[in-house]
Design a protein that fits this description.
alpha+beta, 443 residues, five-stranded mixed β-sheet, Heat Shock Protein 90, single chain
Length: 443
């Protein structure tokens, strides 16, 4: 290989480096700081790496080696996240490939056979690289590449080992196919067309694999939630089984008092009514004012738990709440909302359980087109409010501290939900806000 070819590879490496850095940061919504020396260090590494690959690596492995080089540089110097580095590298190269296809389709009618001649001319190769890079920058100006990237990142969460192996094998096969087509010396148009079709098939297979995995996890999560609910209702059923047995005993006592013409039977019944019904009517009647859709059952089950633990619960529901239709919110919003409220109530119960004064307030109201659900409780002196929400932070001991981290993740991934923490004297309040306006008026 002569000096001219080495210089040509170096120039191609510069184009590749500038575009890759710009693309990776763009996909992550990061600013490109061209004044930072690290940017030019990365470009230099790409130039050196691409030149070495061209000179020393067999043409059968050049595409695979270039992809590996880009992933390593991306991981070490740019995104520093292995999952994001792999996905963003593939997306950037896919954009480059689409740009090459667009270039050929646009200019072949005008240049004819000269397109093939440009591939053998140094100046022509530089012009092609410049044109393809320009088209790639234009494609990045649209939101399509970023949407594809974010969707793939979402699908790649918590992949199983077998799936990762399958994806790696498919990637290697596709890279090998690219190399074989290059070795066959097909025409530029045919090569790019076949490459594009192969990439689309590859993306389809990967998305299908990822979608299957995500659907499995979604269904698994759904049944885990159902199992948790069933366990709570089993506890409630056990409670009412005990209550039913106790009620039968009370009825037997009343029957015997009537048979013996005991004058105190009326007073005894009134005491039972005051003791049993009045204690429960707040839970039954007030929770019935909460709209159907899952939230009522969530709050009801937690209030039953509070009653068992002798925790005073104040339930305050504004009149306008009856106009809210939780069922029309959709399963995702409702399920996320119920999960978050369950975490807030569990944390409040755990916090007040260790205090002398045990009091929790649950409030539902409408404010600024938001359904607001406030869970308030008094708190102990050892509570560090600055660390609340951080993974593993807890005052409950080992194997706790993930609830509020889960809440943070749910709110982050659902634009209709937001969370506020309020500290007022000796009360700590977790407020969940559901944007009703956007639900009724989707964009």
């Amino acid at each position: 290989m002569n000096i001219e070819n080495i210089l040509l590879d170096a120039i191609s490496g510069i184009f590749l480096g500038v575009f890759s850095i710009f693309c990776w940061n763009k996909l992550e919504n990061k600013e490109n700081n061209w004044k930072n020396y690290r940017v030019y260090l990365i470009i230099l590494l790409m130039v050196i790496g691409c030149t070495i690959i061209t000179v020393y690596v067999s043409e059968y492995f050049r595409i695979f080696s270039t992809l590996l080089l880009l992933m390593i540089i991306n991981y070490l110097f740019v995104l520093k996240d292995i999952r994001k580095s792999i996905v963003s590298t593939f997306v950037s190269q896919f954009i480059f490939m689409i740009s090459e296809l667009i270039f050929v389709l646009l200019f072949t009618p005008f240049l004819g056979n000269n397109v093939e001649n440009l591939k053998t001319d140094n100046i022509g190769i530089i012009c092609i690289n410049l044109a393809v890079a320009s088209l790639s920058f234009l494609l990045l100006k649209t939101n399509i590449p970023q949407k594809i990237y974010l969707k793939v990142i979402e699908l790649c969460d918590n992949l199983q080992k077998n799936l990762l192996i399958s994806m790696t094998v498919i990637t290697v096969l596709v890279a090998s196919a690219f190399t074989i087509m290059t070795w066959m010396n097909l025409s530029t148009v045919l090569t790019l067309a076949l490459n594009t079709i192969l990439v689309l098939v590859y993306i389809g297979i990967i998305v299908k694999l990822l979608s299957t995995e995500v659907n499995f996890k979604s269904i698994n999560s759904k049944y885990e939630t159902s199992l948790s609910s069933l366990k709570e209702y089993e506890t409630i059923m056990n409670k009412y089984r005990v209550d039913n047995h106790e009620n039968k005993n009370q009825l037997l006592i009343i029957r015997n008092m009537i048979k013996s013409k005991d004058n105190n039977v009326v007073s005894y019944i009134e005491n039972l009514v005051n003791e049993k019904i009045k204690d429960n009517e707040t839970i039954f009647y007030k929770t019935s004012r909460i709209p159907e859709g899952g939230l009522r059952a969530t709050i009801y089950s937690k209030m039953c738990k509070m009653e068992e633990l002798n925790i005073k619960c104040i339930l305050d529901i504004a009149n306008e709440i009856k106009t809210v239709d939780l069922i029309k919110m959709g399963d995702k919003v409702t399920l996320d909302m119920c999960k978050i409220i369950s975490v807030f109530l569990d944390n409040a119960i755990d916090e007040v359980s260790k205090l002398n004064k045990k009091e929790i307030t649950v409030e539902l109201f409408i404010m600024d087109n938001n359904l607001c659900i406030d869970i308030s409780n008094n708190y102990g002196l050892d509570t560090n409010f600055e660390k609340i929400g951080l993974p593993k932070y807890t005052t409950k001991g080992d194997n706790h501290g993930y609830g509020l981290a889960l809440v943070k993740e749910l709110v982050k991934n659902n634009k209709l939900l937001s969370n506020e923490k309020i500290i007022n004297k000796n009360k700590f309040t977790q407020r969940l806000k559901v944007n009703i306006y956007e639900l009724k008026n989707p964009k």
